[in-house]
Specification:
The chain is built from four helices and 31 strands. By secondary structure, the chain is an all-beta fold. Strands 19-22-23-24-25-26-27-28-29-30-31 form an eleven-stranded antiparallel sheet, with no helix packed on it. A five-stranded mixed sheet has the order 12-17-18-15-16. A four-stranded antiparallel sheet has the order 5-4-7-8, with no helix packed on it. The longest helix is centred in the middle third of the chain and has 5 residues, at 312-316.
């Protein structure tokens, strides 16, 4: 006699059993039809949380009572159930699953299809492949792994974004980036610029900027499907004309809970520097043949044996360190699964005073109630980037970026000398030209503060109802929301426009809010030699974007950097907001004959608030 009590906490079922029958030790071995031992096969006592994995030689040991049933489960094999009788030894042969012989990939809207049945190119990447060259930006992990995919990292700075293009550019009006979809919800991958060239001089080439897919922790990814071209991504409409990347995050599995911990540490350094001439000092000979040192060029006198030659470029760069840690907990029962993870990423840049850090949390859970399955995916991330003016200075404001100046500095000048003895700014040509015409010293440039902070929350709720063996109805509602705050501080005496030379600061708040709703009905039926399928769905979304900018200059009190330290006449504000809605109706018809001839017809029509 066996009594079972079921306790439920937050949707996770905990079984407490009072066993009157005596448990005993069950042993055995699991093999394939060829006789080959099968390791890592999951053995579960049905209705309990008792589970083990087979050893590499296929052997297993588990506690069970007569009358209980053992479930044997392995990827690529059919499941097998064995009832426990009076015996103690059970040798099991798992048959290969015919379905596993055909490669199944994730396509648009998360639908799984046989790869050979597709009329377009799809490539799948599993988690282990992505982790081989793991980086903070998951886009960089695709480099060299997918045919027809071009990945370009914007720079080597900490927190730098990357651009990905599938099968080349297709439009002159857009950035040709593919659509990103994470767990069925469209995921914004914008590169947010804090300022505006006409507002505070910020440009895309002025500093490092991240692309927002970086908010996803690569350790959480189970699978990535790259859908190339409009045919593959037609169900997403025109926005996926450049293709789509479908990201599926990890879920828990039936069996005992498993804790995973991943820790990585690495260091980076500049291993090759541009070649520099070591013969001439700063200077040049003018048209009259007279040596003039009022220049940043290095065509002056030759270095003598007693002259000091500085290796300014090599001395400028740091060794970069990266610490990446992730911990996760996953498990579940026959009806409930869960996955929880937390991660921390810290990177210092090779450029002094720069760095990038990211903290993420994720929860994925599913609960079955007969034919109904409910699920949720929730993720939170907080990312910070400390950066500087690297490639160029601020637009229409003179000065230069740090990298621009480093490579131009003459070798007979000590670049680390950027302050006078009294703490004021050292200027090489201070008595001969205006401040805004100076080539800024890189050490002065990196002293200025530029940073951005992004806080992001994404979530979705989904329900799946199996109305019949051939009819499935699903609904998903999701949201993607983040706030990016950018700050820029230019200290007094900077080589900028005159009105900013007593200091300038700007700040911006970029808010992105998106929600979507998707109702889909899917049909699958086999009639004789024909495999028939159809789906129809309705999609709706709303996107709201707002941007609030502030800029001020001329600080009243020295060394006190706040908008409250700037008179109202020297402050400007700017605010923009946009909102748009979209509704879409889509459908697909599928037919296959004897698993060798296939026909697919896909269509979608969108109605958007931005068009009549």
């Amino acid at each position: 006699m066996k009594r079972r009590f079921l306790l439920t906490f937050f949707g996770v079922a905990v079984y407490a059993s009072c066993l009157m029958a005596q448990q005993k030790s069950i042993t055995g071995r699991v093999v394939a039809p060829t006789g080959e031992a099968l390791g890592n096969v999951t053995v579960i006592v049905q209705g309990t949380n008792r589970t083990v994995k087979t050893n590499p030689d296929g052997s297993f040991t588990i506690q069970a009572s007569p009358g209980e049933k053992l479930l044997f489960r392995s990827i690529g094999s059919n499941e097998l159930v064995q009832e426990v009788g009076t015996g103690n030894v059970y040798n099991i042969t798992l048959m290969d699953s015919e379905e596993s012989l055909d490669e199944v990939v994730v396509t648009a809207l998360g639908i799984r299809k046989e790869k050979k049945a597709l009329g377009y190119s799809v490539q799948d990447l599993k988690a282990d492949e992505l982790m081989k060259n793991k980086t903070a930006n998951i886009v960089n992990s695709l480099a060299g792994k997918v045919a027809g995919v071009n990945v370009t990292q914007t720079s080597g700075s900490a927190g730098a974004g990357a651009q990905i293009i599938l099968r080349g550019g297709t439009s002159l009006e857009r950035d040709n980036q593919p659509l990103f979809v994470v767990d069925g919800v469209i995921y914004d991958n914008s590169t947010v610029l804090g300022g505006n060239s006409g507002f505070d001089g910020a440009q895309s080439v002025s500093s490092t900027n991240s692309n927002r897919i970086m908010d996803v922790n690569p350790e959480d990814v189970e699978n990535m499907s790259i859908l190339k071209g409009p045919a593959a991504a037609a169900l997403y409409g025109s926005r996926a004309a450049a293709g789509a990347i479908i990201i599926t995050t990890k879920k828990g599995k039936e069996g005992r809970a498993e804790v995973a911990f991943s820790s990585r540490a690495s260091t980076n350094w500049v291993n090759r520097l541009p070649e520099q001439q070591s013969k001439y000092k700063r200077g040049y000979y003018n048209a009259a043949g007279v040596l003039d040192d009022y220049t940043t060029q290095s065509w002056g006198e030759t270095f003598g044996p007693n002259d000091v030659m500085y290796d300014n470029i090599k001395n400028f760069f740091n060794n970069s360190t990266v610490y990446d840690n992730t911990v996760s907990l996953a498990g579940g029962s026959a009806n409930t699964t869960f996955y929880v993870s937390a991660s921390r990423f810290d990177q210092t840049g090779i450029v002094p005073n720069t760095g990038y850090d990211k903290t993420t949390f994720r929860f994925n859970g599913d609960q079955k109630y007969g034919r109904l399955t409910l699920g949720t995916n929730v993720a939170y991330s907080l990312a910070n980037t400390d950066k500087t003016l690297t490639s160029a200075g601020l637009y229409n404001s003179g000065g230069t970026g740090a990298m621009n100046s480093v490579y131009r500095w003459s070798r007979n000048d000590d670049m680390t000398k950027y302050l006078n003895d009294d703490g004021s700014k050292y200027r090489m040509f201070g008595d001969r030209q205006r401040l805004e015409d100076d080539v800024e010293n890189p050490y002065w440039t990196i002293k200025n503060m530029l940073d951005d902070k992004t806080e992001r929350f994404t979530a979705n709720l989904n329900a799946n109802m199996k109305l019949a063996d051939w009819w499935n109805l699903s609904y998903r509602v999701g949201t993607d929301s983040y706030l990016t705050r950018n700050n820029t501080l230019i200290s007094p005496e900077g080589a900028v426009r005159v009105q900013w030379q007593n200091g300038m600061m700007s700040a911006s708040d970029y808010r992105f809010n998106y929600w979507s709703s998707n109702l889909m009905s899917n049909f699958e039926k086999t009639v004789g030699d024909f495999d028939l399928g159809a789906l129809v769905g309705f999609f709706s979304e709303q996107t709201k974007v707002s941007n609030e900018r502030r800029v001020g200059f001329d600080f009243v009190i020295d060394d006190f950097y706040s908008f409250e330290n700037i008179v109202d006449a020297n402050k400007r504000f700017n605010s923009t907001e946009s909102k748009r809605r979209l509704f879409g109706l889509y459908g697909e018809l599928r037919a296959g004959y004897k698993n060798m001839l296939f026909l697919n017809v896909t269509g979608r029509n969108d109605w958007t608030s931005t068009l009549p």
